Amino acid sequence: MWSEATKIGEGRRGLMLMVVAPSGVGKTSLTRRLIADHSDLHLSISATTREPRPGEHEGRDYHFVSRETFDQMVGEDAFLEWAEVYGNRYGSPRAPIMAALERGESVLFDIDDQGARTIAAQAPGDCVLVYLLPPSLAEMSRRLHARSQDSEEVIALRIARAKDEINRWETFDYVLLNDDFDRAYADLAHIYHAERLRRARNPWIGTFVGNLRGEEI
Question: Which residues of the sequence carry a binding annotation for ATP (predicted)?
Fold first, then answer.
């Protein structure tokens, strides 16, 4: 009879899912639905030195820390990656993320191309990199204009940045085209399910197979 320690799935290791896309491709909608549909997948909460914006909450949107605290964390190698953006620092705390993976939970990163590659270089076995492509730059521009959040100048910069970023598509494990939301979501969910089942992330299988071989019928 199998013990509780060898029951199916126990001891599974989580993964870090990096979903990268230019603004206007639909990344936020896809990733938030993926999290809502999977109780074992959580959004990485970054630490930042900027002040909270109206409606933001500590521990839900960000971990808000002082510049002194952030610098101390950098010195202690407490981040998987960090960057300074418009005078404020942002970083992905290492300890809670790695602890989640050990518990069998997975972490989704809302991150840029550079940050994703930085983390993947440190923990290649734990990372899955997915890049989302727009159906066209014209459609991406239309979506950016439709949401009415950016000036024409900012939209032009986002388009230019997207052209540069798209050149690195071959560095990703998967590349999805978001020309149809439901299909793109189904593909993203299938990727997550398949990666969770990788043999290397399921060390319990060895013990399970050993028990099968020794089972008396």
Answer: 21-28
Task: Domains for the chain: give ranges and CATH numbers.
Answer: 11-198 (3.40.50.300)
Identify the burial level of 131 via C-beta atoms within 10 angstroms of its C-beta, where 0-12 means exposed, 13-18 middle and 19 or more buried: buried
CA proximity to 14, closest of 106, 95, 80, 130? 106
Question: Residues comprising the binding site?
Answer: 21-28
Per-residue exposure over 146-168, b if at least 16 CB sit within 10 Å of its own CB, e if not: eeeeeeeeebeebbeebeebbee
* DSSP letters spanning 171-215: GSSEEEE-SSHHHHHHHHHHHHHHHHT-GGG-THHHHHHHHHHH-
CA distance linking residue 201 with residue 113, whole number of Å = 24
DSSP for residue 167: T
Binding-site residue set for ATP: 21-28
Token digits of residue 40:
């074992």
pTM of the model as a whole: 0.84
Kind plus residue range of the DSSP H or E element containing 99: helix 94-102
Report, in angstroms and rounded to the nearest whole number, the Rg of the chain calculated over CA atoms: 20
pLDDT range class, residue 9, cuts 50, 70, 90: low
